[in-house]
Amino acid sequence: EPDVTIVSGLKDAVVSEGDDVTFRCQVSHENARDVEWKLQDVALQNNEMNEISVEKGKIHTLTLRKVTEQDVGTVTFRVGPHTSTA
Q1: What was the pLDDT predicted at 5?
Q2: CB distance 18 to 71 below 8 Å
Q3: Which residues are in the Ig-like domain (predicted)?
Q4: Which residues pair with 42 in a beta bridge?
Q5: What residue ranges do the domains of the chain occupy?
Q6: N or C, which terminus of the chain has less Cβ within 10 Å?
Q7: Beta carbons of 8 and 2 less than 8 angstroms apart
Q8: Sign of the alpha-carbon dihedral angle for 8, 11, 45, 48
Q9: Using one digit for the tens of pLDDT, what is the confidence trace for 5-60?
Q10: CA contacts within 13 A on the Cβ side of 65
Q11: CA 17 to CA 32: how far, in whole Å?
């Protein structure tokens, strides 16, 4: 299985409280396994507050809904040994 790398990393975002924010990370291969999103070192699950999806097979997205002050911090995307932060 080829090593999946990050082609296009996360970009920093500034949003107002109550807004949604979306982070995108493009990887080199489709159907990447061993993918993880974190906020402040806490692993995120797909739920009503965090929408995790994959577009076109290679673009992994994380949308944080109705952000609050508690959501301030570092977002990390990891695929295998590679990470990107914003």
Answers
A1: 97
A2: no
A3: 2-86
A4: 39
A5: 6-85
A6: N
A7: no
A8: negative
A9: 999 999 999 999 999 999 999 999 998 989 999 999 999 999 999 999 999 999 99
A10: 8
A11: 32
Given a contact cutoff of 8 angstroms between Cβ atoms, the answer to whether 59 and 44 are in contact is no
Q: Is 26 within 8 Å of 8 (Cβ atoms)?
A: yes
- Fold designation for 6-85: Immunoglobulin-like (2.60.40)
State the Cα–Cα distance between residues 81 and 65, nearest whole angstrom.
28
Amino acid at 20: D
Query: How many other CB atoms sit within 10 Å of the CB of residue 25?
Result: 26
Instruction: Give the position of tokens 């291969």.
Output: 29
Distance CA 83, CA 80 (A): 8
